[in-house]
Amino acid sequence: MTEPDYQQQRLDVLAECELDTLAVRAGQRRTVEGEHAEPIFTTSSYVFASAEEAAARFSGEQPGNVYSRYTNPTVRTFEERIAALEGGEAAVATSSGMAAILSTCIALLKAGDHIVCSRSVFGTTTNLLSKYMAKLGVETSFVSPLDMDAWRDAIRPQTRLLFLESPSNPLAEVADIAAMAALAKASDSLLVVDNCFCTPALQQPLALGADIVVHSATKYLDGQGRCVGGAVVGRREHMDEVLGFIRTAGPTMSPFNAWVFLKGLETLRLRMMAHSASALALAQWLAQQDKIETVYYAGLPSHPGHKLAAQQQKAFGGVLSFTVRGQRDAAWRFIDATRLVSITANLGDAKTTIVHPATTTHGRLSDAQRAESGISDNLIRLAVGLEELTDLKADLQRGLDAV
Fold this sequence. Notes:
Elements: H1 3-14, H2 19-25, H3 51-59, H4 73-86, E1 90-94, H5 97-108, E2 114-118, H6 123-135, E3 139-143, H7 148-154, E4 159-165, H8 177-186, E5 190-194, H9 199-202, E6 212-216, E7 230-234, H10 236-249, H11 255-265, H12 268-286, E8 292-296, H13 306-312, E9 319-324, H14 328-337, E10 342-343, E11 353-355, H15 367-373, E12 379-383, H16 389-402
Parallel strand pairs: 2-3, 2-4, 4-5, 5-6, 10-11
Antiparallel strand pairs: 1-7, 6-7, 8-9, 9-12, 11-12
Helix pairs in contact: 2-4, 4-11, 5-6, 5-10, 14-16
Protein backbone atom coordinates (compact mmCIF):
# COMPACT_ATOMS: atom_id res chain seq x y z
CA MET A 1 0.00 0.00 0.00
CA THR A 2 1.34 3.43 -0.88
CA GLU A 3 1.73 6.10 1.78
CA PRO A 4 -0.98 8.37 0.26
CA ASP A 5 -3.43 5.44 0.23
CA TYR A 6 -2.64 4.63 3.87
CA GLN A 7 -3.08 8.26 4.92
CA GLN A 8 -6.42 8.50 3.10
CA GLN A 9 -7.67 5.31 4.72
CA ARG A 10 -6.73 6.76 8.14
CA LEU A 11 -8.72 9.90 7.32
CA ASP A 12 -11.70 7.81 6.21
CA VAL A 13 -11.62 5.85 9.48
CA LEU A 14 -11.33 9.03 11.56
CA ALA A 15 -14.40 10.47 9.85
CA GLU A 16 -16.46 7.81 11.64
CA CYS A 17 -14.83 8.20 15.07
CA GLU A 18 -16.14 9.72 18.31
CA LEU A 19 -14.91 12.85 20.08
CA ASP A 20 -12.31 11.24 22.34
CA THR A 21 -10.64 9.56 19.36
CA LEU A 22 -10.74 12.74 17.28
CA ALA A 23 -9.13 14.64 20.17
CA VAL A 24 -6.15 12.30 20.01
CA ARG A 25 -5.89 11.49 16.30
CA ALA A 26 -7.62 14.05 14.03
CA GLY A 27 -5.48 16.13 11.69
CA GLN A 28 -2.24 14.15 12.06
CA ARG A 29 -0.35 13.24 8.89
CA ARG A 30 2.87 11.38 9.57
CA THR A 31 5.98 12.44 7.71
CA VAL A 32 8.46 10.10 6.04
CA GLU A 33 10.15 9.78 9.44
CA GLY A 34 7.16 7.81 10.76
CA GLU A 35 6.85 9.77 14.01
CA HIS A 36 4.18 8.74 16.51
CA ALA A 37 3.71 12.17 18.13
CA GLU A 38 3.03 15.26 16.06
CA PRO A 39 6.23 17.12 15.11
CA ILE A 40 6.76 20.86 15.60
CA PHE A 41 7.58 22.53 12.30
CA THR A 42 9.70 25.45 13.47
CA THR A 43 10.30 27.01 10.09
CA SER A 44 9.33 30.39 8.73
CA SER A 45 9.39 29.41 5.05
CA TYR A 46 9.46 26.41 2.72
CA VAL A 47 11.67 25.38 -0.19
CA PHE A 48 10.08 24.75 -3.59
CA ALA A 49 11.25 22.29 -6.21
CA SER A 50 11.11 24.95 -8.92
CA ALA A 51 10.10 28.51 -9.70
CA GLU A 52 6.97 27.09 -11.34
CA GLU A 53 6.00 25.23 -8.16
CA ALA A 54 6.61 28.36 -6.09
CA ALA A 55 4.31 30.37 -8.35
CA ALA A 56 1.61 27.67 -8.17
CA ARG A 57 1.80 27.57 -4.36
CA PHE A 58 1.63 31.36 -3.97
CA SER A 59 -1.33 31.62 -6.36
CA GLY A 60 -3.21 28.81 -4.65
CA GLU A 61 -3.31 26.66 -7.78
CA GLN A 62 -1.30 23.97 -5.97
CA PRO A 63 -1.95 23.05 -2.32
CA GLY A 64 0.95 23.11 0.10
CA ASN A 65 2.97 25.23 2.45
CA VAL A 66 4.00 28.74 1.46
CA TYR A 67 4.95 30.77 4.53
CA SER A 68 4.29 30.05 8.21
CA ARG A 69 2.30 33.22 8.69
CA TYR A 70 -0.61 31.29 7.20
CA THR A 71 0.54 27.75 6.32
CA ASN A 72 2.34 25.56 8.82
CA PRO A 73 1.89 21.78 9.23
CA THR A 74 1.71 21.87 13.05
CA VAL A 75 -0.81 24.71 13.04
CA ARG A 76 -2.78 22.94 10.31
CA THR A 77 -3.00 19.80 12.44
CA PHE A 78 -4.43 21.83 15.31
CA GLU A 79 -6.90 23.53 12.96
CA GLU A 80 -8.12 20.24 11.54
CA ARG A 81 -8.41 18.70 14.99
CA ILE A 82 -10.45 21.53 16.55
CA ALA A 83 -12.63 21.65 13.43
CA ALA A 84 -13.30 17.92 13.79
CA LEU A 85 -14.16 18.30 17.48
CA GLU A 86 -16.57 21.19 16.82
CA GLY A 87 -18.09 19.50 13.77
CA GLY A 88 -17.04 22.35 11.47
CA GLU A 89 -15.83 22.22 7.88
CA ALA A 90 -12.67 24.18 8.64
CA ALA A 91 -10.86 26.18 11.29
CA VAL A 92 -8.36 29.02 11.43
CA ALA A 93 -5.88 29.29 14.30
CA THR A 94 -4.99 32.72 15.67
CA SER A 95 -2.50 34.28 18.06
CA SER A 96 -5.09 34.70 20.86
CA GLY A 97 -8.78 34.36 21.61
CA MET A 98 -9.28 38.08 21.05
CA ALA A 99 -7.46 37.77 17.73
CA ALA A 100 -10.02 35.10 16.79
CA ILE A 101 -12.89 37.50 17.46
CA LEU A 102 -11.15 40.42 15.74
CA SER A 103 -10.27 38.31 12.69
CA THR A 104 -13.86 37.10 12.38
CA CYS A 105 -15.22 40.65 12.52
CA ILE A 106 -12.68 42.15 10.13
CA ALA A 107 -13.06 39.31 7.64
CA LEU A 108 -16.85 39.23 7.53
CA LEU A 109 -17.94 42.82 8.19
CA LYS A 110 -17.56 46.19 6.50
CA ALA A 111 -18.26 49.82 7.41
CA GLY A 112 -21.98 50.36 7.91
CA ASP A 113 -22.63 46.83 9.19
CA HIS A 114 -24.17 46.17 12.59
CA ILE A 115 -23.60 43.61 15.35
CA VAL A 116 -26.00 42.55 18.09
CA CYS A 117 -23.98 41.24 21.03
CA SER A 118 -24.82 39.83 24.41
CA ARG A 119 -23.95 42.35 27.09
CA SER A 120 -22.73 39.41 29.21
CA VAL A 121 -19.44 38.75 27.47
CA PHE A 122 -15.79 39.08 28.41
CA GLY A 123 -15.01 42.72 29.13
CA THR A 124 -12.34 42.91 26.44
CA THR A 125 -14.83 41.63 23.87
CA THR A 126 -17.13 44.50 24.81
CA ASN A 127 -14.29 46.98 24.35
CA LEU A 128 -13.21 45.50 21.04
CA LEU A 129 -16.70 45.84 19.58
CA SER A 130 -17.82 49.10 21.17
CA LYS A 131 -14.56 51.02 20.72
CA TYR A 132 -12.34 49.59 18.01
CA MET A 133 -14.87 48.09 15.59
CA ALA A 134 -16.80 51.36 15.96
CA LYS A 135 -13.73 53.19 14.60
CA LEU A 136 -14.08 51.06 11.46
CA GLY A 137 -17.74 52.01 11.05
CA VAL A 138 -19.26 48.86 12.55
CA GLU A 139 -21.84 49.61 15.24
CA THR A 140 -22.76 47.23 18.05
CA SER A 141 -25.92 47.00 20.15
CA PHE A 142 -25.68 45.17 23.48
CA VAL A 143 -28.65 43.24 24.88
CA SER A 144 -29.41 40.70 27.56
CA PRO A 145 -28.47 37.16 26.47
CA LEU A 146 -31.74 35.91 27.95
CA ASP A 147 -34.21 38.35 26.35
CA MET A 148 -35.13 37.11 22.88
CA ASP A 149 -37.45 40.06 22.32
CA ALA A 150 -34.53 42.41 22.96
CA TRP A 151 -32.47 40.58 20.34
CA ARG A 152 -35.31 40.81 17.81
CA ASP A 153 -35.84 44.50 18.51
CA ALA A 154 -32.12 45.24 18.17
CA ILE A 155 -31.78 43.67 14.73
CA ARG A 156 -31.61 46.13 11.82
CA PRO A 157 -31.41 45.70 8.05
CA GLN A 158 -27.65 46.28 8.45
CA THR A 159 -27.20 43.55 11.09
CA ARG A 160 -24.70 40.93 9.98
CA LEU A 161 -23.55 39.23 13.19
CA LEU A 162 -25.16 38.04 16.41
CA PHE A 163 -22.52 37.34 19.05
CA LEU A 164 -22.83 35.61 22.41
CA GLU A 165 -21.09 33.58 25.08
CA SER A 166 -22.95 30.69 26.64
CA PRO A 167 -22.43 30.14 29.51
CA SER A 168 -21.49 33.76 30.00
CA ASN A 169 -18.47 35.18 31.81
CA PRO A 170 -18.74 35.37 34.80
CA LEU A 171 -22.42 34.83 35.74
CA ALA A 172 -22.99 31.59 33.80
CA GLU A 173 -26.04 32.94 31.99
CA VAL A 174 -27.22 30.34 29.48
CA ALA A 175 -28.53 31.48 26.10
CA ASP A 176 -30.75 29.32 23.90
CA ILE A 177 -28.33 28.71 21.04
CA ALA A 178 -30.85 26.94 18.79
CA ALA A 179 -33.34 29.80 19.16
CA MET A 180 -30.60 32.34 18.53
CA ALA A 181 -29.53 30.42 15.42
CA ALA A 182 -33.08 30.52 14.08
CA LEU A 183 -33.22 34.27 14.73
CA ALA A 184 -29.92 34.78 12.91
CA LYS A 185 -31.10 32.80 9.92
CA ALA A 186 -34.39 34.72 9.76
CA SER A 187 -32.51 38.03 9.79
CA ASP A 188 -29.87 36.96 7.24
CA SER A 189 -27.19 37.24 9.91
CA LEU A 190 -24.48 34.91 11.22
CA LEU A 191 -24.54 33.57 14.77
CA VAL A 192 -21.09 33.55 16.38
CA VAL A 193 -20.75 31.68 19.69
CA ASP A 194 -17.80 31.95 22.04
CA ASN A 195 -17.52 28.35 23.26
CA CYS A 196 -14.55 28.96 25.54
CA PHE A 197 -16.24 27.93 28.81
CA CYS A 198 -17.66 24.64 27.54
CA THR A 199 -15.34 23.57 24.70
CA PRO A 200 -16.63 20.97 22.20
CA ALA A 201 -16.29 18.36 24.93
CA LEU A 202 -19.40 19.79 26.61
CA GLN A 203 -21.18 21.78 23.90
CA GLN A 204 -21.17 21.97 20.10
CA PRO A 205 -22.84 25.22 19.00
CA LEU A 206 -22.56 24.36 15.30
CA ALA A 207 -24.73 21.30 15.86
CA LEU A 208 -27.29 23.61 17.49
CA GLY A 209 -27.40 25.84 14.42
CA ALA A 210 -24.65 28.40 15.05
CA ASP A 211 -22.60 29.50 12.04
CA ILE A 212 -19.23 30.17 13.69
CA VAL A 213 -17.52 29.16 16.93
CA VAL A 214 -14.63 31.10 18.44
CA HIS A 215 -12.23 29.93 21.13
CA SER A 216 -9.58 31.25 23.41
CA ALA A 217 -7.37 28.20 23.15
CA THR A 218 -5.45 29.72 26.05
CA LYS A 219 -8.08 28.34 28.38
CA TYR A 220 -9.37 24.76 28.44
CA LEU A 221 -8.02 23.71 25.03
CA ASP A 222 -4.54 24.05 26.53
CA GLY A 223 -5.60 23.14 30.04
CA GLN A 224 -2.39 24.05 31.86
CA GLY A 225 -2.04 27.81 31.34
CA ARG A 226 1.06 27.51 29.14
CA CYS A 227 0.33 29.30 25.87
CA VAL A 228 -1.87 31.97 24.31
CA GLY A 229 -3.89 31.21 21.18
CA GLY A 230 -7.31 31.22 19.57
CA ALA A 231 -9.40 29.50 16.93
CA VAL A 232 -12.33 30.21 14.61
CA VAL A 233 -14.43 27.28 13.34
CA GLY A 234 -17.23 27.17 10.78
CA ARG A 235 -18.15 26.70 7.14
CA ARG A 236 -15.28 26.75 4.69
CA GLU A 237 -16.59 29.78 2.83
CA HIS A 238 -16.38 31.85 6.02
CA MET A 239 -13.07 30.36 7.14
CA ASP A 240 -11.52 31.20 3.75
CA GLU A 241 -12.34 34.85 4.46
CA VAL A 242 -10.87 34.66 7.96
CA LEU A 243 -7.74 32.98 6.59
CA GLY A 244 -7.44 35.76 4.02
CA PHE A 245 -7.26 38.28 6.84
CA ILE A 246 -4.76 36.16 8.77
CA ARG A 247 -2.58 35.86 5.65
CA THR A 248 -2.59 39.62 5.21
CA ALA A 249 -2.50 40.96 8.77
CA GLY A 250 -0.64 38.14 10.51
CA PRO A 251 -2.30 37.45 13.91
CA THR A 252 -0.92 33.95 13.55
CA MET A 253 -0.59 31.05 15.97
CA SER A 254 2.99 29.87 16.47
CA PRO A 255 3.86 26.24 15.66
CA PHE A 256 5.04 25.61 19.22
CA ASN A 257 1.78 26.90 20.69
CA ALA A 258 -0.20 24.79 18.22
CA TRP A 259 1.72 21.72 19.37
CA VAL A 260 0.98 22.53 23.02
CA PHE A 261 -2.73 22.87 22.21
CA LEU A 262 -2.67 19.54 20.38
CA LYS A 263 -1.35 17.91 23.55
CA GLY A 264 -4.09 19.66 25.54
CA LEU A 265 -6.84 18.42 23.24
CA GLU A 266 -5.81 14.81 23.85
CA THR A 267 -7.18 14.97 27.41
CA LEU A 268 -9.92 17.57 26.83
CA ARG A 269 -13.05 15.56 27.64
CA LEU A 270 -11.49 13.86 30.66
CA ARG A 271 -10.44 17.23 32.08
CA MET A 272 -13.75 18.96 31.33
CA MET A 273 -15.73 16.27 33.11
CA ALA A 274 -13.39 16.47 36.12
CA HIS A 275 -13.56 20.29 36.20
CA SER A 276 -17.34 20.10 36.00
CA ALA A 277 -17.70 17.55 38.78
CA SER A 278 -15.56 19.56 41.20
CA ALA A 279 -17.21 22.86 40.25
CA LEU A 280 -20.65 21.41 40.93
CA ALA A 281 -19.57 20.10 44.32
CA LEU A 282 -18.05 23.47 45.28
CA ALA A 283 -21.10 25.37 44.04
CA GLN A 284 -23.35 23.19 46.18
CA TRP A 285 -21.08 23.70 49.20
CA LEU A 286 -20.77 27.47 48.75
CA ALA A 287 -24.54 27.81 48.40
CA GLN A 288 -24.87 26.48 51.97
CA GLN A 289 -22.51 29.04 53.52
CA ASP A 290 -24.01 31.92 55.49
CA LYS A 291 -21.47 34.46 54.21
CA ILE A 292 -22.35 33.75 50.58
CA GLU A 293 -25.28 35.66 49.08
CA THR A 294 -25.65 34.03 45.66
CA VAL A 295 -23.85 31.32 43.70
CA TYR A 296 -23.93 31.58 39.89
CA TYR A 297 -23.50 28.14 38.38
CA ALA A 298 -25.84 26.51 35.86
CA GLY A 299 -25.37 23.13 37.48
CA LEU A 300 -27.47 24.25 40.44
CA PRO A 301 -31.21 23.61 40.01
CA SER A 302 -31.78 27.09 41.44
CA HIS A 303 -29.97 28.70 38.50
CA PRO A 304 -32.41 30.15 35.91
CA GLY A 305 -30.49 28.49 33.07
CA HIS A 306 -30.21 25.05 34.66
CA LYS A 307 -32.80 23.27 32.51
CA LEU A 308 -31.55 24.78 29.25
CA ALA A 309 -27.91 24.05 30.11
CA ALA A 310 -28.81 20.44 30.83
CA GLN A 311 -30.35 20.23 27.35
CA GLN A 312 -27.55 21.78 25.30
CA GLN A 313 -24.49 20.86 27.39
CA LYS A 314 -23.07 17.50 28.47
CA ALA A 315 -21.99 18.97 31.82
CA PHE A 316 -21.95 22.41 33.42
CA GLY A 317 -18.31 23.42 33.16
CA GLY A 318 -15.62 24.45 35.61
CA VAL A 319 -16.36 28.15 36.16
CA LEU A 320 -18.63 29.52 38.88
CA SER A 321 -19.10 32.89 40.51
CA PHE A 322 -20.51 33.99 43.85
CA THR A 323 -21.19 37.13 45.84
CA VAL A 324 -20.04 37.51 49.42
CA ARG A 325 -21.87 39.49 52.08
CA GLY A 326 -20.41 42.99 52.04
CA GLN A 327 -18.80 45.15 49.36
CA ARG A 328 -15.50 45.17 47.50
CA ASP A 329 -13.39 45.05 50.66
CA ALA A 330 -15.13 41.84 51.71
CA ALA A 331 -14.50 40.24 48.30
CA TRP A 332 -10.85 41.27 48.42
CA ARG A 333 -10.43 39.90 51.94
CA PHE A 334 -11.88 36.58 50.79
CA ILE A 335 -9.49 36.40 47.84
CA ASP A 336 -6.44 37.51 49.83
CA ALA A 337 -7.05 34.96 52.57
CA THR A 338 -6.70 31.99 50.21
CA ARG A 339 -3.35 30.23 50.09
CA LEU A 340 -3.80 27.41 47.60
CA VAL A 341 -5.77 28.84 44.68
CA SER A 342 -4.06 31.26 42.29
CA ILE A 343 -5.11 34.91 42.14
CA THR A 344 -5.08 35.34 38.37
CA ALA A 345 -7.55 36.24 35.65
CA ASN A 346 -6.80 33.19 33.52
CA LEU A 347 -9.08 30.17 33.63
CA GLY A 348 -9.27 26.67 32.21
CA ASP A 349 -6.14 25.64 34.06
CA ALA A 350 -5.32 22.49 36.01
CA LYS A 351 -4.75 24.92 38.88
CA THR A 352 -7.81 26.61 40.41
CA THR A 353 -7.88 30.37 39.89
CA ILE A 354 -9.77 33.12 41.68
CA VAL A 355 -10.36 36.71 40.58
CA HIS A 356 -12.38 39.87 41.29
CA PRO A 357 -14.09 40.59 37.94
CA ALA A 358 -15.11 44.20 38.65
CA THR A 359 -11.48 45.30 38.96
CA THR A 360 -9.80 42.88 36.53
CA THR A 361 -11.53 41.11 33.63
CA HIS A 362 -14.31 43.71 33.49
CA GLY A 363 -12.36 46.60 35.01
CA ARG A 364 -12.21 48.63 31.79
CA LEU A 365 -15.99 48.77 31.52
CA SER A 366 -17.87 51.78 32.79
CA ASP A 367 -19.83 51.58 36.03
CA ALA A 368 -23.04 51.52 33.96
CA GLN A 369 -21.78 48.69 31.75
CA ARG A 370 -20.79 46.60 34.76
CA ALA A 371 -24.15 47.24 36.40
CA GLU A 372 -25.99 46.16 33.23
CA SER A 373 -23.91 42.99 33.10
CA GLY A 374 -24.46 42.17 36.78
CA ILE A 375 -20.79 42.62 37.72
CA SER A 376 -21.08 43.78 41.32
CA ASP A 377 -18.23 44.81 43.63
CA ASN A 378 -18.78 41.77 45.87
CA LEU A 379 -18.64 39.26 43.01
CA ILE A 380 -15.85 36.65 42.88
CA ARG A 381 -15.14 34.26 39.99
CA LEU A 382 -13.68 30.82 40.64
CA ALA A 383 -12.33 28.63 37.83
CA VAL A 384 -12.08 25.19 39.40
CA GLY A 385 -8.97 23.17 38.59
CA LEU A 386 -8.02 19.55 39.15
CA GLU A 387 -6.86 19.65 42.78
CA GLU A 388 -8.34 17.45 45.49
CA LEU A 389 -11.81 18.75 46.38
CA THR A 390 -11.25 18.67 50.15
CA ASP A 391 -8.17 20.87 49.77
CA LEU A 392 -10.10 23.39 47.70
CA LYS A 393 -12.88 23.54 50.27
CA ALA A 394 -10.35 24.11 53.02
CA ASP A 395 -8.79 26.99 51.10
CA LEU A 396 -12.13 28.60 50.34
CA GLN A 397 -13.00 28.25 54.02
CA ARG A 398 -10.00 30.48 54.72
CA GLY A 399 -11.64 33.05 52.47
CA LEU A 400 -14.97 32.70 54.22
CA ASP A 401 -13.32 33.13 57.61
CA ALA A 402 -11.87 36.46 56.46
CA VAL A 403 -15.22 37.96 55.40
